[in-house]
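Entry 14: structure prediction run for Calpain family cysteine protease containing protein. Input pasted below.
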Amino acid sequence: MDFNEINLGELGRQIFARLLRATASDGSYEDVLYECQQNDSLFEDETFTAGPESLIKDWSDKAVQDKVSTWKQFKWIRVTEIPSIMEGGVQLAVFLDNIDPSDIRQGLLGDCYFLSCLSVLAENPSRIMNLFVTSKINQYGVYAIKICKNGEWKEVVVDDRFPCFQNEPAFSKAHGDELWVLLMEKAWAKLHGSYERIEAGFAENVLRDLTGAPTEQVHSDDQEILWKKLIEAESKGYLIAASAGTTKASKELLEKLGLIGNHSYGILDVREVTLDDGDKEKLIKVRNPWGDFEWKGDWGDDSELWTPKLEKLLGQSDGNDGIFFMNLEDFCHYFSRVQICRINDKYKYSSFKCNQNRDSYCLVKLVIPSDGLYSISLLQTDERCFGRNDDYDYSNARLILAKILSDQEGVLELEYLGGQMGQTRDIWKEYSMLKKGEYYVFAEVDWQEKVDLTEFCISCYGSGQAYFIRDDKVLYKKQEILAQIYKSCGKQEQEGSKHVTYEQYQEPNIHKITQLCEEGYGFVFYDNKTTESTLNETVTYNKFDGLTLMKPYKDQSYQIVVAPGEQKVVLIRQADPFGYSMASSTSSSIGFSKDKLQKLCKEQGKLTKRVNPSNKQELEIYQYQYKHSSGICYLYENKTVNKKFEEQLKFVLSGLEIVEKPADGTDTVRIKLGPGETKFIELKSVGPQWKIQTAVAFSIY
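Run finished. Output tokens:
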């Protein structure tokens, strides 16, 4: 055989096609299509079959028994054999003319949360089109949709066989002969194991998975905050959905008003308008993905509040198309929460898969290519990827971003930039202006005991194409990294921190900053800016619910010594993501250097002059007594020109001891001072309570 005549690329494709058939695993759209072309056969997806298990994974599950009788009648039919699609006389297409949000029609599947997100995405058709690997019809029935699942963009390949009831699509479809709604829904079902598994979900998860953009949830109990969020979202082109779930009204009342409980809607527009009488009204344009059943209250289609001028301004029409307006007050009364997807079509996405054992962490290096806005996320595996009886639940997770200022010769210096904590599928934080450079993402998940999967994903979404390099956790201990991070945080004195000094102990240049941050770590940062004072402190937490001290400390108290020029940090970890309570008592003392004590003794001590016993005249012989947090000290000065001074100072001590104890081992200090000489005596604390008595005998000659 002449190898020069062989097309090696073609040979590789054939080998791959054989492997694909042998393993029945997912391949890329191009590879699956190539296999079908080589075999001249229609694609039959063996990983999401046209069988009952793709409708319902477990037909014996009590939760699905209300569906069994109807769903057993479903038949899988190729789209080319569905009468309503093929008999319209229009050529089959993925997209027919322009994508219109009103084209979406919900079927027998309770996935309105998914369809409402499709409708808001469809307001900008390119956002739907970009999810399709190809928009062309092919004779082999091979299609692929891109979905960002569990933090990673995946190419979901599906065939064109759909569940049908009475020869019509049983579930969602488009209004007409286009396939994009059926294909999107099938790809979503395949990702989660079955059609039944995608019933009743959360719009914020769909918006995130179809865009890669972080999505926030805003509750409607504060109208002012919600309106500001809606105005910002509308001005920036964000996607908005809303949930009429748990509200103040009953299900029956909602239906009378034209609303559906536990139902997801899309928000298309928000406007503040001026009425004829000069009053202002905040209006919200809402879409029901069912395509009908509309709000019947104020500003509904039939409301008398509409004027021709306002109808023209807001594009209001009376059609029963599922689109209606509400004012902000009514909206907040009946809609419990709003989801805002912070999409920007120019932004770039990158991700990194992490594997973290219990009690460990990840430290992933991230490179930001250019200054700009970036959001960092931590994403756990979606609970829908597990069976309903798998007892899977999300674990408490944390992420912290820190800029690498220096990493030379093993010396790491970091700048704290904030973080986030939560026991939800996704947690994320937006950083409004990251500078070009290298960063560390500290990520940690407190895996629940019943969770076996220890993988999660970190992602970056922002103005530049950031990229992750590696996990550096093997280079540093967790406490070492956190100490670096929170020393930086302490120096920044962020909002919410508590800053105290030790001025009451005559040392204003020792600082203590305390804070518990939103990512679930707290700290006590000590910064001793002195050159001759040492802080000794004991802190006991009388209440420490939901919190733990990190090594080397333990239990509910710590003792710390901070020498001159030192910075130290005590780390606190929030163990309970839902709250904590803390109360403490503190015992502090400052150990001064001998020079500092002599200075304080003279400046702030109690002054006593010795008196000549022969003539009762005060002498220029001085005693200064100074009491401070760590003890008591005495300073003697003989400022006479020609007199000598001797004194015997006898102490009776409790909780104190003489620093330079006399040679005879007693607590009696003998002072001998010639003219111009001084003597310093220091007593230091050795117990929580002090008692001192003195007896003095002196002579002058």
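Notes: Residues 486 and 701 are 62 Å apart (CA to CA). Will compare against the previous run tomorrow.
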